[in-house]
Amino acid sequence: xxxxxxxxLLTVRNVRKNxxxxxxxxxxSFELKKGECLGIVGESGxxxxxxxxxxxxxxxxxxxxIAFRGEPLAKASxxxxxxxxxxxxxxxxxxxxxxxxxxxxIDSLLEPLDQRxxxxxxxxxxxxxxxxxxxxxxxxxxxxxxxxxxxxxHELSGGQKQRIAIARAISxxxxxxxxxxxxxxxxxxxxxxxxxxxKDLRKELSLSCLFISHDLAAVHFMSxxxxxxxxxxxxxxxxxxxxxxxxxxxxTKLLLEVFQE
Amino acid sequence: MNTxxxxxxxxxxxxxxxxxxxxxxxxxxxxxxxxxxxxxLPPGTEHWLGTDHLGRDLLARIIAGxxxxxxxxxxxxxVSIAIGVPLGLLSGMKGGRTDSIFKxxxxxxxxxxxxxxxxxxxxxxxxxxxxxxxxxxxVKWVRYARxxxxxxxxxxxxxxxxxxxxxxxSPVRLVLKHILPHAMGHVAAxxxxxxGKIILLMASLSYLGLGSQPPAPEWGSMLSEGRAYFHAAxxxxxxxxxxxxxxxxxxxxxxxxxxxxxxxxxxxxAE
Amino acid sequence: xxASIARKVLRxxxxxxxxxFLSFCLLKxxxxxxxxxxxxxxxMAATQxxxxxxxxxxxxxxxxxxxxxxxLSQLLKLDLGSSYLSGRPVAAxxxxxxxxxxxxxxxxxxxxxLVSLPLGALAARHRNRWLDRMSRYMSAAVSSMPSFWLGLxxxxxxxxxxxxxPPMGSEGIASLILPSATLGLSMAxxxxxxxxxxxIESGSQEFILSARARGxxxxxxxxxxxxxxxxxxxxxxLGESLASLLGGTVVIETLFNYPGIGKWIVDAxxxxxxxxxxxxxxxxxxxxxxxxxxxxxxxxLANPELARKELRHS
Amino acid sequence: xxxxxKLSIRSGSxxxxxxxxxxLQDGEWLGLAGESGxxxxxxxxxxxxxxxxxxxxxxSILWNGLELLRLDAKSRRRLLGSEIxxxxxxxxxxxxxxLTIGSQLTELLEAxxxxxxxxxxxxxxxxxxxxxxxxxxxxxxYPYQLSGGQLQRAAIAAALLLRPKLLIADEPTTAxxxxxxxxxxxxxxxxxxxxGISIIWITHDLRHARRHADRIxxxxxxxxxxxxxxxxxxxxxxxxxxxxxxxxxxxxxxEMPERLAASAGLEGEDPLDHPR
Lengths: 261, 271, 314, 276
Fold this sequence. Notes:
C: mainly alpha
C-alpha cells in the first residue's frame, strides 16, 4: 500500500456523538498528517477522551465520518476494524489499569507483536530473534532495564508502567499514537521524565501523534499544533507559536493565564 | 489470623481433598453391612464411633459418606460455574440488548434467598436426589453469572482491554485471554466458600426428606436417620454433624485464603 | 409518576403470572400422584375406579392449561382451593398457621439482632484484638453447622439435660425460645462479620476524617455520620435476612415439630398436595417482593443519593 | 505561631517523616511542596492529631506555646475547626453524603459556639455567599447535587466559618480542573488578606506558588530539603531536588526547551520514581 506522503493519516469530519440524550461531541473536524503531533487541550468533561476512544474505534459515534488513511470507519465491519486497529497505538491516563495485573511485563509488552506473527517492526532491526531480545530492545527504547520484563505490574511504579505502555504502543510501528493524558496521574518529576521520553521518541521514530491533556503547558511542550476543546466543541486551534497571539479565543486566553501563573 | 495458620488451613484442606478421593476406607467395617445384634452401640474400642440403628459401623459410614457428600457438592458447584460463568461473561461483554435480557433474569433469581428457592424447587420437583441437585444448581448458577457479569463489565472498561483490542485481538480472544482468567480468580474464591454452603444446604434438604434417600451413607441423610434415635444414641447425630462442620470449615478456610491471595496480587501487594 | 407506577404493577403481575405458571407446570409434569397420597390417608385399598373418580373430582384429568386456568380464576376470587390432605381451604389453613411462623420469625430476628449487632460493633471497634478474634472463630463455627443440627444440640442441652425448656410444640412463649434461638443464632453467625466489615468500611471514609477535623464530638460522628453511612448496607442485610428467614423456618419448624407454614409445606410436598404447594409459592413470592421493595424504600430514605442514582439509571 | 521541631512519624519500623522542623509566622502562606511519599500530608495531619491509628509520632508541635502532640481529646476538639481548620483534596468526600451542606455547617457552629438557630443559619449563609456560592441553594443541597468546584468552595466556607488562625489545605486543587482551582486559590488569598490567617498549602505542583505562597518548603522522602521565600526557592533553588521539581513544569513561553530535565542540568539523574 503506497500512500501519498501528504495525505492525512486520519481525517475527522463533522463528528457528533450523543450520550444520555446530550451531545458530548459537536461537529468535530480535523486532520492528522504524517509526522505531525496534534495537541488537544480541554478540561474534564470537554469530550477530549470520548474523542480519543472514537478515533481508536473503541466506541462508536452518531454522525460524521472518521477515515483512516482515506478509508471510512463509520460502517466498517468487525474484520475491518480488527485489521485497522493494530495500526493505531494508544497510551491512557491510568498506568494501574493499562497492564493486565495477571500477566508478566514481557507478555503484556509483546502482546501486539505476538498477535501479528511474522511481523517485525523497523525499531527491532538488528535485534536478534526471540521474544526476550525483542522485549529487552523495547524496554531499552523507553530507558528501562531488561530485567523489568520478568516483573508483574504491581511490582512497578506508575512511571515505569507508563513507560511500558509507551513501549508497547510503539512496538507494532503504528501509523499514529493517541496519548490520552499519559502523564496526568504521575508525580511531577516522573511526568517531566515521561514527557521528555515521548519527545525524544517522537524525534527518533518520527511518530505521528495526538497528545491529549488538560495541561496547556504539557500540550504546548509536546505538540506542533493545538486544538482547544470545550463542552464537546473545538473552540480554538493554532500552531504552537501562535498561542501568545492576541487573536486567540477568550477561553484559550483564560487557560493560558491560569497555566502561566 | 497469621499467615502460618492460614497456610496450615490450606494444607489440611488440600490433604483432606486428596485423601477423600484416593485412599480406601481405613476401617475394617463395611458401611452397608447390617448387623442387628450390634444396634446403637455407643463409641468404643471396636466401633470407634459406635454403630447406627441397623448395627452399621458409624466411622465406616462417615468415611464412605464423605465421597458422595463432598463429591456431589463439588459436582453441583462445577455445573453451576459451567452454566453461570459463560452466561455472565456473555451478558457483561455484549451489553446492550443481550444484557437487558440477562440482567433482569439474574436480578430476579438473586432476590430469592438460597434456602427458600431450593426448598420450593425441590418441593415442586418432588423428593429425590436428582431434583435436589437440579434445585441447588438452579439456585447457585446465578451467583456465578452475576459475578462473571460484573467482572466483565468492570474489566472491559479498563485500559488494558482497550489496548488488547488495539493489538488486534478479537473480542472472543480478549475474553479468553484477559477477562476469563480474571473472572476465574474471583470465581475460585467464591466457589471455595460456596462448597461449604452447598454441603449445608444439601444436608438441610436431605434432612427435610427432600434430598438423597437411605440407605446411601450421605451425611445429610445420616443426620436425618439418626434423628429418630436422638435420645437413645446421640452419637448418631453428633458424628455426621461434626463431619459436615469440619468440611464446611475447611472449605471456608480455603476460600478465605484464595481471596486474600487474590486481593494481594491485584491491589499491588502489601505482603 | 402514575405511568411508572402502572408499569411497575404490570411488571409485577407478569412476573407473578409467569412464576405461578412455571411452578404449576413443574409440579404437574414431574412424576408423583397426589391421589395415592389422598387414598392412603383414607386408609382404603385403592381401585382404579376410585382413583379415577377422585382424579375427576379434583380436575386432575383436564389438560394442564385448563387446570391452570381454573386455579387462576379461583385465585381472582381469592380462593386458593382446598388441601387434598385435610380437605380444608388452603387460605383458612394458611391464615391459621401463618401467625405461628411470624412469631418464630420475629423471635429469630430479635435473637439475630441482639447477638449480631453488639458483637459486630464491638468486633469492629476492637478489631484484631481478642474479642474480635473470638467472635470471628465463633461465628465461623456456628455458620458451619447445619441449622437443624445446632437446634438438636440446643434441645439436648436445654430440654433434655437441663430440662429448662420444652423441646417441641407450640405452647406459649417458652416453646418459642429454642426454635428462635436456633434460627437466630445460625443467622447471626453470618451477619456478625458483615456488620463488622461494614462499620469498619464506613469508619475509614474521608468524611469521617473531615468531621473530626471540624472538632465534632466522636460520639456524634459515630451516630450521625458513621452509623448512618452503615445503615444502607445494614438495611440491605436486614432485608436479605428477612427473606432467608422464610427458608430457615421451614427447617426449624420441621425440627421442632412447630405448627407453622414451613412444616405445612414440607408435609404437603411428600403428599404432593398441589393447592398447598401453589399457595405457598405465591405467598413466598409476594413476601420476598414486599421485603425487597420496603428495603429499597428504606435505603433511599437513608441515603438520598441512591434515589438519584436510580433515577438516572432507569 | 506554629513551631514544629524534630517531628518523626513512623509506621512500625519505617520512618515516614524524619525529624522535621518547621516554623510558621502569623499571616504567612507556606507552600509545602513534594511528591507522593514525601510525607507532606502526614505532617499536615499530625498538626491536628488526625494521623491514622497505626502511625505514631514523636517530637514537638507547639501552637502558640501549646504542645499539640500531648493535647487531651477535649482541648484538641475545641481547637480543631475553630482555631485550626482543614481543607482536603478529596472534595467528593469532605461532606457526609447523606446530610445537607447546611446541616453540616451548622453542626460545626453548634460544636464550638452557642448561638440561636437563626443566627447559625445566617452565619452559614453569609460564609457561603463569601465563597461565591448561591448560598440558599447550596445550604439546602446534598453534596451530590453540587459540582466539584462548588463543593470545594463550600468546604473552604466551612473551614473559614469560625475564623481560624491557621488553615491547612491539603492539595485543595489537585482533583479540580484548572479554572475551578483558580477560584479556590483565589478564595484562600482573599481569606488571608481579609482575616490575616496563616495557611499551610500542600501541593505537588509548584506552578501557582509564585503568585500565592510567601514561603516554600520542599519535602522529599520525609525531610525538608530546602526552605526559603517563594521567590528565592523558585528562582534560585539551592537543592538539586528542588531544581528538578521546578524544571518539571513545562514552561509556557515562546521558546520551548527541548527537554525538561535537561534544562535543570540534571540529565543523567533518574527522577524519584519508586514503586508503591
